[in-house]
Amino acid sequence: MLTWVMYDIPKNKVRTKVAKACKEAGIYRVQYSVFLGDLDKAQRRELRTKIEELIDENVDSVYIFPMCSDDFKQCVLLGQAFDKDLITDEIKALFL
């Protein structure tokens, strides 16, 4: 299922580690603190666990939103938006 990860993390070191965890999970950066990609339930749980270990819950905010493909197709991208085709399984398979 498509998964959005968005965060507001003041400390550079923690923010960098969370971004690295997202990249390692195979999701794409679509804005500086926003990632999007296809993760199954187990992958989402694993990423959540990694992020929970990195952040300070009293200071940092992280949102993990699953989204079905039908809803994603209805997203409107304005301005310098990301390429929606990069998020699909078909495109990711080309890079294996």
Primary descriptors:
single chain, 96 residues, 4-stranded antiparallel sheet, disordered C terminus, Alpha-Beta Plaits, 24% strand, alpha+beta
Walk me through what this model shows.
This protein has 96 residues and is of the alpha+beta class. The chain has one domain (2-94): 2-Layer Sandwich (Alpha-Beta Plaits). The chain contains four helices and four strands. The chain has helices at 12-24, 41-54, 69-73, 89-94, and strands at 2-8, 28-31, 34-38, 61-67. A four-stranded antiparallel beta sheet has the order 2-3-1-4. Helix 1 (12-24) packs antiparallel against helix 2. The longest helix has 14 residues, at 41-54. The chain is globular and about 35 Å long. Residues 90-96 have low confidence and may be disordered.
Brief overview, please?
The protein is of the alpha+beta class and 96 residues long.
Give the neighbour order of strands across the main sheet. Answer: 2-3-1-4
Instruction: Characterize the biggest β-sheet.
Output: 4 strands, antiparallel
What's the CATH class label? Alpha Beta
Question: What is the fold-level CATH name, i.e. the topology?
Answer: Alpha-Beta Plaits
Taking pLDDT < 50 over at least 5 consecutive residues as the criterion, the unreliable ranges are 90-96
The general outline is globular
Strand content: 15-25%
Series of secondary-structure elements, N-terminal to C-terminal: EHEEHEHH
How large is the count of helical segments? 4
Task: Map the helices and strands.
Layout: E1 2-8, H1 12-24, E2 28-31, E3 34-38, H2 41-54, E4 61-67, H3 69-73, H4 89-94
Antiparallel strand pairs: 1-3, 1-4, 2-3
Helix pairs in contact: 1-2
